[in-house]
């Protein structure tokens, strides 16, 4: 079989507070994260948003020890996966390719080339597919492959999403059961799945299958858990002014409080490692929301991290991928049906919803310019030195 590599893809996170600004810039400079139709505007906008967000984001990272644990946990997962595959008689080297921070995907590919891998399994550490996560990493890899003819010598296969993988579902069910079993009355607890949100337009305009995969995954986990508890699915981590998938986690917690729910068991559903959105957003911010809503028993299920069943899930995925016909990066978008991955290449002229949103934004900028001129007596052209 030759040398086999497994490339684990993830988002990446700042290792220390000084990394937060550049990390955010990389994130917002990605057209799969901020889908704007004009390529030239992407980097100035990324600079503007990241500069404005850095302080708030740094404050949040400070609350979890000054940086993201994502790199450390992903390295532990990569090591555990290598060991597990070795036990099964399958020698592999594992590589970590982060999208927005070290070790970058480009660094992983350089190592894969240096090690002369003959076969490669590309495995995103996101159970469900979204244009903004796995989609973005696949798009980057497609570009890297196009630019480097030597890479065509590597026989690779992609795993687009894997939220139905049985050992993953068992790992999630086991983690939830562990938390429920700590409660005096486990059946009374309300199980609250909190998924990372995406803007609604991703699903409704760009055809992102993310919401459907999250919903199906949630119900498969509940079937695997096989307990009588009530459950809710909501979406967290909204950024910016546009509408994201609903219900929002904050609103859903308040609604449950108003209904008299006393025990809440929160399950992070789109992440496989602890990171800022579990450790800060759920454990600190949503706990406070719950407390105000009268829910005093707030529990959070751990992310899979290196749970043995989860590592088994990853190794089963790799073993199956090596046995199956290979799936190429270019085939993923076809497989995920009508997904429009490239906003700047798929802009449609006419009165589409996207055009309406952009008309609104441009009108708002014009209005702000008018107010500035009324207050200062000088127009925008004065400020940029043209007049
Ligand atoms: C499935 C998981 C994720 C989806 C979907 C996703 C979409 C998405 N995220 C943002 C904006 C931000 N994400 C940030 C950090 C972050 N997001 C994910 C996962 C998903 N994002 C991870 C694993 C991380 C890293 C966390 C860490 O520990 O460092 C951040 C930075 C943190 C902050 O300032 O809040 C932002 C911003 C958008 C806009 C988006 C969909 C379009
Ligand atoms: Fe995110």
UniProtKB/TrEMBL annotation:
Its main location: cytoplasm. It catalyses: heme b + 2 H(+) = protoporphyrin IX + Fe(2+); Fe-coproporphyrin III + 2 H(+) = coproporphyrin III + Fe(2+). One of its GO terms (molecular function) is metal ion binding. Pathway: Porphyrin-containing compound metabolism; protoheme biosynthesis; protoheme from protoporphyrin-IX: step 1/1. One of its GO terms (cellular component) is cytoplasm. Fe(2+) binds at residues 196, 277. Keywords: Cytoplasm, Heme biosynthesis, Iron, Lyase, Metal-binding, Porphyrin biosynthesis. It is an enzyme of class 4 (lyase). One of its GO terms (biological process) is heme biosynthetic process. Its EC number is 4.98.1.1. It is found in: Cytoplasm. Belongs to the ferrochelatase family. NCBIfam families: hemH (TIGR00109). Catalyzes the ferrous insertion into protoporphyrin IX. This is Ferrochelatase.
């Amino acid at each position: 079989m030759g040398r086999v590599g497994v490339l684990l893809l993830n988002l990446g996170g700042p290792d220390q507070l000084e990394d937060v600004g550049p990390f955010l810039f990389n994130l917002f400079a990605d057209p799969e994260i901020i889908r704007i139709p004009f390529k030239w505007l992407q980097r100035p906008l990324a600079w503007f948003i990241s500069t404005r967000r850095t302080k708030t984001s740094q404050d949040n990272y400070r609350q979890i020890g000054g940086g993201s644990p994502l790199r450390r946990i992903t390295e532990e997962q990569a090591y555990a996966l290598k060991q597990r595959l070795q036990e099964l008689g399958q020698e592999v080297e594992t590589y970590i390719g982060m999208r927005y921070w070290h070790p970058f995907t480009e660094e992983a590919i350089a190592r894969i080339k240096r090690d002369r891998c003959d076969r490669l399994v590309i495995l995103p550490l996101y159970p469900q597919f979204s244009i903004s996560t796995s989609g973005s990493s696949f798009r980057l890899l497609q570009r890297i492959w196009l630019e480097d003819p030597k890479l065509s010598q590597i026989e690779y296969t992609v795993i687009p999403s894997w939220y139905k993988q049985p050992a993953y579902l068992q790992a999630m069910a086991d983690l939830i059961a562990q938390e429920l079993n700590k409660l005096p009355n486990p059946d009374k607890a309300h199980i609250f799945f909190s998924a990372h949100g995406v803007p609604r337009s991703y699903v409704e305009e760009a055809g992102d299958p993310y919401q459907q995969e999250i919903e199906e995954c949630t119900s498969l986990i509940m079937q695997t858990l096989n307990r009588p508890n009530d459950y809710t699915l909501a979406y967290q981590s909204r950024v910016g002014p546009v509408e994201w998938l609903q219900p929002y986690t904050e609103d859903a917690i308040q609604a449950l409080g108003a209904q008299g729910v006393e025990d809440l068991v929160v399950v992070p559903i789109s992440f496989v490692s602890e990171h800022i959105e579990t450790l800060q957003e759920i454990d600190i911010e949503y706990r406070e929301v719950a407390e105000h809503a009268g829910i005093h028993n707030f529990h959070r299920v751990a992310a899979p991290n290196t749970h043995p069943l989860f590592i088994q899930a990853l190794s089963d995925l790799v073993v199956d991928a090596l046995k199956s016909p290979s799936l190429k990066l270019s085939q993923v978008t076809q497989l995920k049906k009508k997904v429009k991955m490239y906003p700047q290449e798929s802009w449609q002229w006419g009165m589409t919803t996207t055009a309406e949103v952009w008309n609104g934004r441009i009108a708002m900028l014009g209005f702000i310019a008018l107010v500035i001129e009324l207050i200062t007596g000088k127009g925008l052209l004065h400020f940029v030195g043209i007049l």
